[in-house]
Every structure is written in structure tokens, then in C-alpha cells.
Design goal:
3 helices
Amino acid sequence: MKGSQRDDTPVLITEAAPSYDDQHAARRRKYAIMMSLRFPFLIAAGLSYQVPWLAVLLVLLSVPLPWMAVLIANDRPPRKAEKASWFRRRQSRALEARQHPVINT
């Protein structure tokens, strides 16, 4: 095409977002890890009943875990706001400052 310039800048594959399946698998893994921590915290709280502050701390840590696990599991990474730029600003070309001959016919 005349007058248009083609951008031959290579696109790095490493900049591509992970696939939906990979994102979903990572979120499921995080959910499973967080939910599997709740029962050990509760068991540790029951076993440490002789140290009340530690037992209360472990129970308080285990209470918000399901809520946080659901929030993290349902949270997808934000989409990139990329807009296709079909029109580029061309650099304005200034006229030369020298004298140009005029041809009279």
C-alpha cells in the first residue's frame, strides 16, 4: 500500500496472557491450599488450649480463610486495555528554509 508504513516490531510471546485453563488451574490450586490450611489451624487451636492466646489466634486465623479462598479463586487477572492503533500520527515535515526557484512560463 502506498503511503502506509508497516510496523515490523516483533511481538514477544512471553507478553501473552496465560490461557484461561492455566489461570483457572492456578486459582483452583490456591483455593485448595487455603482451604486445606483451615483444618490444621483448628486442630492446632484445639491442641493448644492450654495457651489461650495461641488457641484464639489460630481460631481467628482459620475463620476468614474460606472467605479469602473464595475471593481469590473467583478473582481473574485484569484484562489488558490494549487498543488497536490503526492510525499513527505522522511526523510533520517542515519546509526547507532555502530559496526555491520559481519557473514562469
